[in-house]
Structure formats: C-alpha cells, structure tokens
Design a protein that fits this description.
- The complex is a heterodimer of chains A (about 325) and B (about 80).
- With about 325 residues, chain A is α+β, with helices and mostly antiparallel strands.
- In chain A, strand 4 and strand 5 (about 210-220) form a beta hairpin.
- In chain A, the strands form two sheets. Chain A has a five-stranded mixed β-sheet with strand order 2-4-5-3-7, with helices on both faces. Chain A has a two-stranded antiparallel sheet with strand order 1-6.
- Chain A is built from twelve helices and seven strands.
- In chain A, helix 1 (about 15-25) packs antiparallel against helix 2.
- Chain A has helices spanning about 15-25, 30-35, 40-45, 60-80, 95-110, 120-135, 145-155, 170-180, 185-190, 240, 255-280, 290-305, and strands at about 5, 115, 160-165, 195-205, 210-220, 285, 310-314.
- Chain B is mostly helical and about 80 residues long.
- Helices cover about 85% and strands about 0% of the residues of chain B.
- Chain B has helices spanning about 1-30, 35-60, 65-80.
- In chain B, helix 2 runs antiparallel to helix 3 (about 65-80).
- The longest helix of chain B has 27 residues, at about 1-30.
- Chain B is flat.
- The interface of A and B includes residues 3, 177, 182 and 296 of A.
Chain lengths: ~325, ~80
C-alpha cells in the first residue's frame, strides 16, 4: 500500500528528521541500519521502516485479519463437529419460571393466563427428543413431522395450537424477552384463543454441539368452552416431565467465537491507540484514514460484541 | 482556521453520536437478532460514508483512504455479524 508520510514537525526527536540528518553524515548507512526496529514495534508503532504506519493497520493486514477472523470461527465449528461434547452449552432453565413469565406477559397485555397441560408438556418433551434424535432444529422435522403430530400422539386434541422454540439461552427471562421481541412468537404468547401450555427443557447434542432446547406448546382443546379455568392453577408435576438438565458446562461455540472476535478487536484497538498517540506526538501528516475515527468505530463494535448474548428463537 | 477546526469537531461529534446511538439500539433490540444485525450493518455503512465525507471536506480523500475505510467497515461488521 502506498502510504506517503512526511513530518511537519521540527522536533529533533522526529524519526524523519533523524533520517535526514544521518544522510548528511558519512557512514550514514550504518546509522540508518541502527534505527531498524523490532518486528513487533513495526506492527504497532509508526516508524520510517513501516512507512509511518503500523503494519497491522495496513490494508493487506486488515485483509489478513479478516481471513483470520473467518478462519478462527470456522475452526470452532469444525472442532465442535469433530469432537462432539468438547464445546457446548447447557443451562438450567426452570420450566415453571418460563410459564410464569409467559403468563406475566399475557396478564400485562390483558390476556387470560394459560393453564399447565400435562399432555402438551409430553408433546413438547417428545418433540425435543425427536430433534436430538434426528439432529434438527426446526418446527417441522426432516421427515416432515409437524408439531401438531406430537400433540395428537400425546392425547391432546387441539382446536388451535402453536409452538415456540428456543435454544442456548442461559435464563428463562431472556427466552421470553426474545420471544416477545419476535412478532410471530409474541403472537403465540399473547393469543387469546390458547388456554393450555406445555413446556420441555432438554439438554443434548445437535450437530455434535451440546445445546439446551426449550419447546413451548400452546393449545386449546376441541370442544373447549370459552370460559377459562382459574388462572394460576399450574400443576407442579411438569417439573418431573422435563428431560434431565445438566449444570452449566464448559465453553460454548458462541463463547469461543466471541473470545476470538474480542481478541482480534483488542489487537486492532491497541494498534490504533499507539498509532494515534505517535502520529500526534510526532506531528505526522500522511495519506491515511483517521486513527481516532477508526478507534471510535472499533470501540463501538467491541461494546456491541460484549452486549450480544447467545440464544436463538425459532 | 477556526471554522476548519469547528467543522472537524462537528464531524467527530456526529461519529460519536452515531456510535452511541448504535450501542443504545443494540441494547434495546438485543433480543431481536435481525434488528441487531441491521443496526451493525447500518453503522458500518454509515462509518464508510462518514469517512468519505470527512476526508472529502478536508481535501484528503484518496483511493487508499477510501479502500481503508471500506476494509475497516467490512471488518467491523463481520466481527459482530458472525456472532449474532
């Protein structure tokens, strides 16, 4: 990359100034050689040998970093597939809490609360087992089995029914917040036609990655009257219906990717900070973007990376 | 000179305001992955355009600078998008 740099400074310690002085003296070649910097120095600090711009901030280096970023993430995925169980995420989601928060949302929106249904929970549990067994994450299985089949098989003859799915969340509140943020899931949660709710929380492996699935099923039985059973009567039995939930496990693929991204962005920010400081100190004028602006941009991206949490809904 | 400094500072204020807005929007929409992606991509595009306008007004817009802002914007967006 052609980066033209000149010093506007009369600072005797300016690197450019030094170079000019040396050239006037005999044996200048040796003296210029003595200015050679450590490769790490050239990576992070502006210097005549890196055209007054840290090598890490050169366009070629940014392309390399982009490649490393993508490669690192791909390696996490490959490693997770090749070594099932090493990377994964398992959390302890309390099903009772999910129902409680769901009903709180309904009550906030003046919709009657849902009543726990053992049959719907069985259907949700079977659905979760089916997703792990057939290695899929979808409302309809690869064999074409729809959620409604699980309900009918569990003995729940529905008039209207719905299903919400979530995975890799660390707590019940985040799940319901994510569902409420999605128009289709929100519609399910706030649908006044539904009277019953069933839920399953299951831990297992999908594509070799340990994951925690939450299946939430809604329904109203055929022949159900419009009258709703008294709201807060929720059987405690469902806690035993859920599949075994393991304690929080090691590093999830998300955490590994997040750490990799944060490491790269931290290195870039370090290089930009040093560049910013030395450009200011040496009054360097060069054809280049503004380090201060780049610094602001990457600090923002770093903050966003910190904010982002894992967990997806379907 | 005074007006030049003011213009430069105004540009930086706009960038800081956009950065703060992006962070606030990500916090607000953190549960909606699509909206978070949209905010991140929008901020990256904004940054690229901001770079062009800022350097053009300073008379320092060169092909290298344009390419630099483009690469930084892409890298910044990819850093986040892969996690959403």
């Amino acid at each position: 990359m052609a980066v033209i740099a000149i010093t506007a400074s009369t600072n005797p310690f300016s690197l450019r100034q030094k170079t000019i002085n040396y050239k006037k003296k005999p044996g200048c070649a040796i003296m210029v050689f003595s200015m050679a910097a450590h490769p790490l120095h050239l990576l992070f600090v502006p210097h005549p040998h890196n055209n007054h711009k840290p090598k890490l901030l050169w366009s070629q280096s940014i392309l390399v970093l982009l490649g490393l970023l993508i490669m690192g993430r791909s390696l996490v995925d490959i490693f997770a597939s090749a070594k099932p169980g090493v990377l994964g995420f398992a959390s302890q989601i309390d099903p009772e809490k999910v129902i409680e928060i769901t009903n709180q949302e309904r009550q906030t929106n003046n919709v009657p609360p849902l009543v726990y249904s053992k049959e719907l929970s069985e259907a949700a549990q079977t659905k979760a087992i089916d997703m792990f067994a057939n290695n899929y994450w979808a409302h309809v299985s690869p064999q074409g089995t729809e959620p409604w089949s699980f309900m009918i098989n569990a003995g729940y003859t529905y008039l209207h029914a719905g299903e919400n799915l979530a995975r890799d969340f660390s707590n019940p509140n985040d799940i319901v917040v994510a569902w409420m943020a999605s128009p289709t899931h929100r519609r399910n949660i706030l649908d006044g036609r539904y009277k019953d709710i069933g839920i399953a929380v299951a831990d297992g492996y999908i594509n070799g990655i340990e994951t925690t699935l939450v299946v939430q099923m809604f329904g109203v039985r055929q022949g159900s009257t419009a009258e709703v059973a008294s709201g807060n009567v929720i059987s405690q039995a469902y806690a035993q219906d859920t599949i075994k939930v393991y304690p929080v496990s090691g590093i999830s693929p998300f955490d590994a990717k997040k750490s990799w991204s944060l490491a790269l962005v931290a290195i870039i920010i370090l290089a930009l900070s040093l560049d910013w400081f030395f450009v200011w100190k040496n009054n360097l004028i060069r054809i280049s973007g503004k380090s201060w602006a780049h610094f602001t941009f990457f600090i923002t991206m770093m903050a966003i990376i910190f904010i982002i949490r894992q967990g997806i809904v379907l | 000179m005074r007006s030049k400094i003011t213009k430069k500072h105004l540009d930086y204020l706009v960038l800081i305001f956009a950065a703060a807005l992006a962070i606030i929007l990500v916090i607000v929409f953190s549960a909606n992955k699509q909206l978070v992606s949209l905010v991140v991509v929008s901020f990256a595009v904004f940054y690229f355009i901001w770079g062009i306008i800022h350097h053009k007004s300073e008379g320092t817009l060169h092909r290298e600078v344009l390419f630099e802002y483009l690469l930084y914007a892409i890298l910044g967006a990819v850093l986040v998008i892969g996690l959403v």
